[in-house]
Amino acid sequence: MSNEPELFPTTGEDGQHFRRPLTPEEADRLPHVQRLLLGYFGEPPKREPWDPLSQFIYSLLSSRTRTEMTYAVVRNLRQRFGTWENLRDAPVAEIEEAIREITFPEQKALHLKVALEQITERYGSLTLDFLHRYRTDKIRAWLAQFPGMGPQTTAAVVNFSTLRRKAISVDAHHLRVSQRLGLTPRADAATTEERLMRLVPETWTAEMLDDHHQLVKKLGQTICTFEKPECRQCPLLAICPYGQREVVATEPTSPLG
Fold first, then answer.
1. Could you list the pLDDT tens digit for every one of the 257 residues in the chain?
2. 97 backbone φψ class: left, alpha, beta (φ>0; ψ -120 to 50)
3. What does the CA dihedral 173, 74, 57, 177 come to, rounded to 10 degrees?
4. Cα–Cα distances in Å, from 84 out to 16, 60, 108, 127, 167?
5. Which positions ≥6 away from 225 have C-beta within 8 Å?
6. Can you tell me the distance from the alpha carbon of 73 to that of 187, in angstroms, rounded to the nearest whole number?
7. By C-alpha distance, which of 58, 51, 208, 13 is closest to 131?
8. What sign does the CA torsion over 169, 175, 181, 184 have?
9. Which residues does 253 contact at the CB level (< 8 Å), separation at least 6?
10. Contact 87/95 with Cβ under 8 angstroms?
């Protein structure tokens, strides 16, 4: 018989806290951003959700590593070890060698092995499928106990996997874009996600939040970059205070002064 982790089941949605109603202008801020990004980039590719454990492994390894590289490393782990149980039971040195192409492989190899062992110990087998029964905030709090799992990664697990819960995985790109747009004050990922979620329409599904994240991330990777953002090309320029200041600052000075 498995040892059920101490989570609280619920039949409700996501246990949203009471919040004041948004003004019509506030309520349209994220939808307006979404419309502009969809008009510029088109529909993002639809994700084929993984089971929660596979997404957990991916998310733990993905920090500060390019998406393509992380996918390649996870594919290699599947091929090399066959099962996640075999990965769990492998020596740390072997796991480190298998993930050497991502950032901080020494630290992540240890975190991964410890997390997989602890999941097995707490549940009785290596799976996270039982999380489907629990409330989103409780799932994220439980996942955050594992080494290497912060707000961005717990959001990714609950939103991108077959759990398909409402959350925004605020990576560095999403954080930068949100701050430049003035959607949220300067803050960490957890606070930024909380403030953004207040602006999310009730009608948006978990899949729509995934699409939104992909579009904002693409903008941050291609146009709203950390250095030398291409503000004149940005589809959000008309609603971006930062971009408008940058455009004015880079306008050539008239010789007639």
1. 344 454 533 334 444 444 678 888 888 999 999 999 999 999 999 999 999 999 999 999 998 888 889 999 999 999 999 999 999 999 999 999 999 999 999 999 999 999 999 999 999 999 999 999 999 999 999 999 998 899 999 999 999 999 999 999 999 999 999 999 999 888 899 999 999 999 999 999 999 999 999 999 999 999 999 999 999 999 999 999 999 999 998 776 555 54
2. alpha
3. 10
4. 34, 14, 15, 9, 26
5. none
6. 31
7. 51
8. positive
9. none
10. yes
CATH for the stretch 52-160: 1.10.340.30
Residue type, 16: Q
CA nearest 194: which of 183, 206, 180, 207?
183
CATH-assigned architecture of domain 24-44+168-233: Orthogonal Bundle (1.10)
Sequence ranges of the chain with CATH classification 1.10.1670.10: 24-44+168-233
In this structure, the dihedral spanned by the alpha carbons of residues 156, 157, 160 and 163, taken in order and rounded to 10 degrees, is -140
Dist. CA 36–CA 220, nearest whole Å: 14
d(C-alpha 152, C-alpha 69), whole Å: 18
**Are the C-beta atoms of 58 and 74 separated by less than 8 Å?**
yes
The answer to whether the CB of 234 falls within 8 A of the CB of 67 is: no
CB 96 within 8 A of CB 104: no
